[in-house]
Amino acid sequence: MNVNAEQELFARFANIVTEPSEKDAILGVAPKVIVSPANTEQISAILAFAAENNLAVIPRGAGAQMAIGSAPSRADILLDLSKMNTIIAYEPGDMTITAQAGTSIGAIQRAAAEYRQFLAIDPDVEESATIGGIAAVGINGTRRMKYGGVYDQILGAQFVLADGTIARAGGKIVKNVAGYDIARLLCGSLGTLAVLTEVTFRLQPKPPFSRWIGVPSPTLEAAQTVVQLIRQSQLSPSAIEVVPAADGFVTALSFEYTAAAIQEQVTALRQLLGKKYGAWYIAKPNFSLPKNAFALRISAPPSQTLPILQKVLEISEPMHIDWVAHVGFGAIETSVNAAPDAVVRLTGQLRPVCEAAGGALVVSGDGLSALPELDPWGTVSSAPLMRSVKSYYDPKSILNPGRFVDGI
Amino acid sequence: MIASEIIHLFESAVGPMRVITHPAERKAFASDALLHYHEPPELVVFPETTEQISSIVKICNTHHIPFTPRGSGTGLSGGATPSPESVVIATAKMRKIHRIDIANRLAVVDPGVINSDITKAVASAGYFYAPDPSSQSVSTIGGNVAENAGGIHCFKYGFTVNHILGAQIVLGNGDIVEVGGEAMDMPGYNLLSVIVGSEGTLGIVTCVTVRLTAQPQSIVTALVPFASMESAGAAVSAIIAAGIVPAAIELMDQLTLQVCENTIHAGYPENAAAILLVELDGPQAEVEARIADVAKICRNYEALNWKIATLPAERALLWKGRKAAFAALGQLGAHLFLHDGVVPRTKLPEALKRLTDVGRRSGLWIATVLHAGDGNLHPVVLYNDDQEALAEQVAADILTMCVELGGSITGEHGVGLDKREFMNVMFTENDMAAHQKLRLAFDPLGISNPGKIYPAPNMCGEGAKKYKQHPLEQNGTITRL
To answer: Which CATH number fits domain B1-215: 3.30.930.10, 3.10.129.10, 3.40.710.10, 3.30.465.10?
Structure first.
């Protein structure tokens, strides 16, 4: 940013511009200024100004997931959305909630809990993480299997385009096919197409009871057998997860029903598994991984999840990695405390395995700042079309430049 | 007019037997199930492979000829009504189920595969394809994807968009692109999310990977008559407020239920002012406990009776009545105008009241069925030849009312030609301009089903012409099929 633009920025947005500190760097790239708008109109004015002056804008909610994606190719304005944290409308009878993008997931869940409802997404983030950030990143947790992904919960959105245009897509009702579903498209787009300012989500009723059942197994092959038996049966768990245990592995299942139905499911599960495997009521396992320099996230067809996990564990020896396998929908999350060159090697060996199975491997974490050459995303099949979409929404590439797939 | 040398190009792309040029034959493709609009295409082509579709679209692209994809033509908003001077690309010859992968709960199918044929192919393994539009026995998966089709069970199971894992699509320039796949949450833009429901305007879907759902262990359908629409509507709200997620929850008014009963003999009590059909599915103990809760709630709202069906044949009969609603109403003579507006569920009582007022003011009969769980109203307006203008006014009143109450002009039928002039009731010019950037990215020339969804003045050509009856039709010598 040239001196004139910076001076004008400070003059025009005097009350909301501050100087960044070291902790505001995005994977090692320091922004020039932080702007903290209080409303959508201010965001529109900031983006129009940025577009005019060709300034790169990095949107940020609570900053919980800034280490996802490549380091930005340039960074002028850190657009801090944390002041936009108002729940605009919550109608329990409609099971919909509309909130500003900077509202925390914790605030949404607390509001919904008063009416025995919840927003059915549980990514591994702190409860201060914002809904705008969670939508932009689009990462899912254990609820993905029963309730779908983040984009399955979003009903509509208000957003600001790179040129400052304020627009809406979708609506505030659970069923609607009027117009392109741009709100869904923005989920998982890492803020590279538009800045989300307001989001409407559908909510779900809390089930009467929710219980976790654990099936221990000494080996991963045995866990795979257990998972296959369950997936081929008429049992209807809400989640199927595999986690490491002191003496092997545990397949953890959640059942969300009335007490009688849970009892019925557990009885059927024990019959299905026979004498070979035990099934016990357990506390909800801790699916939250420790924060390390690197995190590897793998997507795979569900039946390939554990075979790929086996490869992950073999190849990563003797490195220690923490992991959870979402076998119900086909994902593995890992947290890796290793030197950057070891992570490059691991990625190089694992990514072809994942891609050959029709999946993908994505690397994230603060450690990426030491690896500017590593593509965290891998190759994507429809990259030219994605670039075309980007070029119409953000022709000057000012939104999160260089952070997304294929250099978008 | 498409020049004969260009027609030859199409013929060499798919074979001369796969191109329809005769005017009488082309006329059969002039409308979808919304008969108000009528626009015979220049040509109809029947490709058999993705590569052939790509070749067809490349010819269209080179010569700036618009094309309109077509499945079975059962759409209700004019989405498959040919764009003016266009080529219809019909997927009727692409009906293969390529692969069924039970371990990963998916199937890879051609776009012309009939919705219910997927379920037939996987039922013995214990699975089904969940989205169930009333047209499912004839409508194609490609058309379902284009319209993001819903159905009576989408309250619990979600819409087409929630059941499509991947697709192959031919863009406006003829490029073949794969989006999504067998693994979820792949890196990159979620292009599949916008392709589903784009009504053929972003290209033509040539192969679809659908998600399969495990059959529930137990299913119960309840038939509950009420003395008023209000009390039935209040019961719906109470059921959902109790945290119950029915597989389906459908409401029919008296006119509809009487007509359906006369046609299908499903056992609907004809003296009731409204009936509710509630279906629960899941583990047996869960269904038993929850159906008892539903019964109690219905009693609290003064249900006139309570009848449940558990045998497949009994349940199928109850649903047959509901699914026949539109066809049955057609027997009342006259013309039908089926609407698809949505209101927030809490606004249903007000919407039903205002709908009654609209009917009374206009003097037209309005029969209403609704997907009550998600606030999706299907009022059917009945009118005579000389009441077309009145019917259009009623349509405008209904759609505007839905938007005023915080809802939408369409829940599952699509905007098509039919409702594009109402998009500006829901969206601003800026909103629609922002949406249409997407179209430019997929189809810069605007040749893929132009004129649908958005009232875009810059798109080529005018909309399809309103259908006018032939004099022989007016005097009753001939009738339209």
So the answer is: 3.30.465.10
DSSP A258: -
Q: Does A147 touch chain B (CB under 8 A)?
A: no
CATH code of the domain made up of B218-327:
3.30.70.2190
Q: Is A289 on the interface with B (CB under 8 A)?
A: no
Q: Which two tokens stand for residue A50?
A: 């940025």
Q: Give per-residue pLDDT as tens, B83-96.
A: 999 999 999 999 99
> Are A223 and A193 a contacting pair, CB within 8 Å?
no
Name the closest residue on chain B to residue A177, using Cα atoms: B411
Over pLDDT 70: what percentage of chain A? 100
Q: Which residue of A has its CA nearest to B242?
A: A205
Helix (H) or strand (E) holding B312: helix B312-323
Instruction: Report the greatest alpha carbon distance in chain B.
Output: 72
From chain B, pick out residues whose CB is under 8 angstroms from the CB of A302.
103-105
* Statement: residue B460 has pLDDT above 50: no
Closest A-chain CA to B160: A177
What is the torsion angle, in degrees rounded to the nearest 10, for the CA atoms of residue B248, residue B211, residue A69 and residue A36? Answer: -10
Of B182, B216, B423, which is closest to A178 when you measure between CB atoms? B423
- Percent of chain B's residues with pLDDT above 90: 90
Query: CATH 3.30.70.2190 region(s) of chain B?
Result: 218-327
Contact B188 A386 (CB under 8 A): yes
Rounded Cα distance between B48 and A322, Å, is 49
Task: For residue range B198-237, list pLDDT tens digits in order.
Answer: 999 999 999 999 999 999 999 999 999 999 999 999 999 9
Tokens (6 digits) for B55: 């070749």
The domains of chain A, with CATH numbers, are 1-206 (3.30.465.10), 209-282 (3.30.70.920), 294-370 (3.30.70.260)
**Residue B271: which residues within 8 A CB-CB, separation 6 or more?**
B225
Boundaries of CATH 3.30.70.2740 in chain B? 333-421
CATH number for the domain running over B333-421: 3.30.70.2740
* C-beta atoms of A91 and B190 within 8 A: no
- pLDDT of residue B159 exceeding 80: yes
**Residue A272 contacts B where some CB pair is shorter than 8 Å:** no
Per-residue pLDDT at A243 exceeds 90? yes
- Look at residue B276 and give its three-state secondary structure: strand
Q: Is the pLDDT of residue B112 over 90?
A: yes
Give the pairing type, strands B87-90 and B67-70. Answer: parallel
Task: Give the model's confidence band at B458: pLDDT under 50 very low, under 70 low, under 90 confident, else very high.
Answer: very low
Domain(s) labelled CATH 3.30.465.10 in chain B stretch across 1-215
pLDDT per position as a tens digit, B461-480: 444 555 555 555 555 555 54
pLDDT tens string A341-362: 999 999 999 999 999 999 999 9
